[in-house]
Specification:
Two copies of one chain form a homodimer. By secondary structure, chain A is mostly helical. Helices cover about 75% and strands about 0% of the residues of chain A. The longest helix of chain A has 24 residues, at about 115-135. The interface of A and B includes residues 78, 121, 153, 162 and 184 of A.
Chain lengths: ~190, ~190
């Protein structure tokens, strides 16, 4: 199957997800991943510390994709609006239409392995903590910062699941706005 | 057969939390817990399958404490109000003023051990899934059920943390109502 491969990192990511989907996370080796991508193990380790990192990426980088937009938001924006803005910024960078098939493949792998599900929960718990910290740094009181950040992660999780399953191929940002409106209607 | 010991379960729980607080979760053995409680290891295993279960209890029982009130709520109650009602019912049963010192001790143990934090995240993820299922069983559409259940867990987590740290000794239910109002104001 001929397709355009923009670089080693993306080829390794695609090969990893293919192999995890075919034979599971546990049974897949780095040697197999490198071979499938047509690269060496050495190249793999230039980009990733282990096969799990292909799924989860670097936590600090991931958290900054949420917290940098929070830090950059106009000073007079409300706490939850700042969080929603950060989710939009994150979506524009990461959750594009082109990214959806790989995201769906990744989710299937995670859904099949309880240890990976735990890791994903930890990853998002880290995001909530990081966003709460970024809100406090803007002067948001701690109690409000925690609630806004945790609710933001809830909105993110719900949006992400709907986006992956959306039959009409709507964008992440469109679904995000829909979930925010629904949360306002539910809780308001 | 180990014989029935009056109050054995509570004594074991208190001894477990004391030892975890003194020397950490990993380094504490069931033999030490039983000795501290003045009971045998055999009695311990009549009540708990392992030392971790003392902290986390039985997951099915825990989930039912949330889902039974959801199933019993009046038919015309909105999805999020049903969830908030379930959190109140849960609080009335488990998170009384008398329970706060033990809950705080338990939280300190969990906060000190990343593996226990993971377990706690999984426990609450299970609650969110169970509540969403209980809402769907009432006829709530799946998308709304997930959002209401996940938001309910967020409200629960935030309330729980505030309750443990509350300097004025307010009840869980009072703080819960406060968090629900704040969420409505944030998201509405």
């Amino acid at each position: 199957m001929a397709r355009w491969e923009p670089g080693a990192s993306d080829r390794l990511r695609a090969a990893t997800l293919e192999l995890f989907a075919e034979q599971g996370f546990e049974r897949t080796t780095v040697a197999e991943i490198a071979a499938r991508a047509g690269l060496t193990e050495r190249t793999f380790f230039r980009y990733f510390t282990d096969k799990r990192e292909v799924l989860f990426g670097d936590q600090t980088t991931f958290e900054r994709a949420f917290t940098d937009p929070i830090a950059a938001a106009p000073a007079d924006t409300g706490a939850f609006a700042v969080v929603v803005g950060a989710l939009h910024a994150m979506a524009d960078g990461f959750f594009t239409r082109e990214a959806r098939p790989l995201s769906a493949q990744r989710q299937t792998v995670i859904d099949a392995d309880p240890a990976l599900q735990e890791r994903e929960l930890l990853k998002l718990a880290g995001v909530a903590r990081a966003m709460a910290g970024a809100l406090r740094a803007r002067g948001v009181p701690a109690a409000t910062a925690t609630l806004a950040a945790e609710s933001g992660v809830t909105v993110f999780r719900v949006t992400f699941a709907r986006w992956l399953g959306d039959p009409t191929d709507r964008g992440f940002g469109t679904i995000l706005d829909e979930v925010v409106v629904e949360l306002g209607a539910l809780a308001g």
